[in-house]
Structure formats: structure tokens, C-alpha cells
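Subject: design request, 231 residues
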């Protein structure tokens, strides 16, 4: 896997992942690691029709697994405990599909669209994919904010029914339209890979770097269920 060194880098330990600052344009950090165990076995034990199934430690511990499955489970429980110790509220999900934005207003605001996370105060987003297709990063210089596209903005102005002024900007922010991006011609989104624990920057007042643009991978009828940790 290769990244633009000005926007993302790998670190060798969880401690460095926690402590490394976002600076100099770097807005994504990853603890790169190989993990052993059978994560597919865990997914196979989760019989549910839910599109997004939340897995608590209790639910994980209730699964009857082989030795390889138990090794994978231990990795999941350790990562949950690591983030909880930081004061985060991590969630482990088995994902078979997310809801789609079907409003048809020019900007899809679901997680399949490239977007940034936003918060009113300093915080980070943590991500790790253990099974299925990983999330993707779009380098900031290869992205165009959707509301800056003239045709899209004109379409949203029709929905708004007013002028392109401060009130319109508030409308865009209220519906999160200003948080979504489209790839520029020739852009190359990058897979975040399996097993790497990521800490990515969030859009908030005073952030030292631009927020990291990312998305969930496209799924289809043949897609494997994803096992995703997020906080």
C-alpha cells in the first residue's frame, strides 16, 4: 500500500498512534500490523438479518470458536479495550450493507460517499477493518467539495429556494452537504487495508490540518460482510 507522504503515514505501535500529532498536512495515521486468527469464522457465526449488527464483548465471548477463531476474537477484544481505556466509545459492527441516500438531491450523504467527519470540539475518528472490503481514503488534493461544483450547487439552490447567501450556507451545513466530496479526474482513492488501526482527523474549529476524506467501500450482492471497528 502506498500513500502520499504529505497526508498519511504509518507508525510502529499503538502508543505512537495515540501520541503522534496531526501536523504538516498529515491527517491520517495508522498502526500497521499483521493479525493472525480466523475473522471469517467469527462473521460466519453471526446469523442475523440486520444490515448492521453491533457486537458487544459479551456477544463475542458467547461464540463457540476454533482456536483460530478465538485468536481473532482476542484481537477484537484487545482493540475494544485499548480504545475504551482512552475514553473512546468504540463499536464493533458486522456490516452487510448501509442505508442509501435516495433523496436524489445532487449529493448523496450516506457513508458510501467520500466525506469528512465533523465535531464541535477536538476529537479523532478511529477505524479498523478486520474482514471484508476496507474503507478508502481520498487524498485532499484529489477531491472537490461537492457544494463547490457549479451544477450541484445550482441544484441545491433550487431545493433551498433562496439566494446563495449565509442562510444557504447554513442550510448546506444543517444537511451535511458541505461535508461530502467528489474525486477529481485522475484521482486514486487508497484502500485503508485490513487489520491496520487508523486514527484520522476530524473537521472541527481550530483543527491544525484538513479533515481526512474517506468512505465505506461500495458493496453488492457478492460482497463479503465487513467486520469494522469504529470510534
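Subject: RE: design request

Done. Sequence follows.
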Amino acid at each position: 500500500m502506498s500513500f502520499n507522504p504529505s497526508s498519511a503515514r504509518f507508525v510502529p505501535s499503538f502508543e505512537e498512534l495515540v501520541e503522534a500529532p496531526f501536523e504538516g498536512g498529515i491527517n491520517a495515521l495508522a498502526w500497521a500490523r499483521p493479525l493472525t486468527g480466523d475473522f471469517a469464522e467469527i462473521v460466519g457465526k453471526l446469523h442475523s438479518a440486520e444490515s448492521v449488527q453491533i457486537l458487544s464483548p459479551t456477544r463475542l465471548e458467547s461464540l463457540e470458536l476454533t482456536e483460530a477463531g478465538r485468536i481473532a476474537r482476542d484481537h477484537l477484544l484487545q482493540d475494544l479495550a485499548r480504545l475504551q481505556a482512552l475514553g473512546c466509545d468504540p463499536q464493533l459492527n458486522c456490516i452487510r450493507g448501509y442505508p442509501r441516500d435516495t433523496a436524489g438531491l445532487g449529493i448523496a450523504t450516506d457513508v458510501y460517499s467520500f466525506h469528512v467527519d465533523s465535531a464541535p470540539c477536538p476529537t479523532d475518528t478511529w477505524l479498523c477493518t478486520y474482514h471484508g472490503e476496507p474503507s478508502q481514503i481520498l487524498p485532499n488534493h484529489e477531491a472537490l467539495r461537492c457544494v463547490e461544483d457549479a451544477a450541484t450547487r445550482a441544484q441545491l439552490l433550487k431545493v433551498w429556494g433562496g439566494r446563495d447567501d449565509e442562510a444557504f450556507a447554513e442550510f448546506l451545513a444543517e444537511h451535511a452537504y458541505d461535508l461530502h466530496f467528489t474525486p477529481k479526474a485522475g484521482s486514486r482513492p487508497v484502500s485503508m487495508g485490513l487489520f491496520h488501526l487508523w486514527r484520522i482527523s476530524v473537521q472541527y474549529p481550530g483543527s491544525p490540518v484538513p479533515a481526512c476524506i474517506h468512505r465505506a467501500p461500495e458493496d453488492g450482492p457478492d460482497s463479503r460482510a465487513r467486520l469494522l471497528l469504529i470510534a
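The mean pLDDT is 92.
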